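Researcher: Please translate sequence to structure tokens.
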Amino acid sequence: MAQGLSTLKDDDLILNDCVQAFTSFVCATTFPMCITDTSLEVKIIPPCKSTCTNVIKSCLTNPESASTETQEIIKKYILSSKFFPQDCCNNITTSPPLNFEYPIEKCNSSPQLFNRPKCFKPLIEDRKWIETNKSEVTSKEFCQNGCCLPCPQSYALYPSNQMERGFLVTQILRVISVIGSGIMLFSYIVLPEKRAHPNLLILFASFSIFLYSTNVFFSILKPKRVQCINEIIPSTQGNNPFFCGFQGALLIFASYATIIWIGFIILNFHVHTVWNSNIMDDKYIYLHIVGWGIPTLFTIIALITHSINYQFATLCFIKVETSNSIFFYPLAAIIIPIFFIHIWTFGYIYRIMRKDRSNAEFKTRVLQPITIQWRELLLSVILIISVIFYWLFYFIKLSTIVKIIESKGFSKFLKDWMICIQSGKGQNYCANNVENNFMPSFRSILAAEISVSLIGVYFFIIFYNEILWLELNQWIHEKSSTIRSYD
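Model: Translation complete:
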């Protein structure tokens, strides 16, 4: 424990002297030297009295001139230890086998401890610091005095294995989303009647959702190949171009595309219901320019500005500092008009319903589209809610984590956390204190990740009905019959 604390401030001579003296005393009294004489009797050689007086001097007398922080560390973690000697006048202990008096003659000076960092889990040794004799560190942000916070850094600030298990659940949900959106995409591609307006809008929306969900395959079962370039340094698009750079670019592109194509579905319902128009029926060339062009534009901007890196969860994304300008604000510029168009459409429907429900035009222009397209409307509402919820988490909660981890040097709270870890209290005890005071709750993190991991599942549940199953089954039967006829 004392060696662990000594790594926190190895340039503090008073703290180091106290740590050296205390550790030597504890080791000497707990594991005293033993010799066997010619009669094969084992004799215990107790530690010198100076071993005890050195502790009193180094940890009680000298620290009076030390900094407040050093005094607090010594008082909290060394003076309060049950191993700290009350005085050096009496026996080492009052009970056998160490009820000896401290010898004072022919005593050698206490051996010094090996100057190597003692890093308690989850901290790991800074190999570069050791190899270069303290002249260099692996990371100025995540390493201090020979001990480093391992990548992914946020995992260590929560109880052991909590984040790993939680994000494994979200990865499984993303795989299910891939399967669900993949089935829908396949169905809308192969069924001829699904390749006409307005079903084409659903086809391209399903393709976007499928792309979005397939990001999980970059990190499934091996999230660290996306999260970290080595055991300490997080990934960026520069040091990990495929697993972080390409994956992050695909995630940005698919996110924009999904929202835009869902927006087209809402817009199509609006112009058909409110304006009695099929203007979008023959405008697919423009829809493709917007639907794929805007995602491509913002993806390129993110890559050019080197904004893609790993910061949280299991995927690389836009770093918090530029996420609003490159992602969330432009996305809001798309979502907000879509939302008001949605309100406009249902306001129109409500007014017509109050005016005359028996009107033939109402049944044709309003009730029939709602009956046919209620699935598209439900999906759009769920996606908008999911995106807004995730944005609020990312903007409010996640920025807190990133500001703490990416601040210059260690913040006071991180130092307190390291002192807690290096005192041997364990990750679970220390992480609970940190999480309660500084970090977002694990439940809020998991809720945000689950909300966006289930997009493909939402899509499948809403659209995959008995009619689609019968149509797909008939198509498979026809194809099988055709193949058999050729045989």
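Researcher: Any highlights?
Model: The two ends are 77 Å apart (CA to CA).
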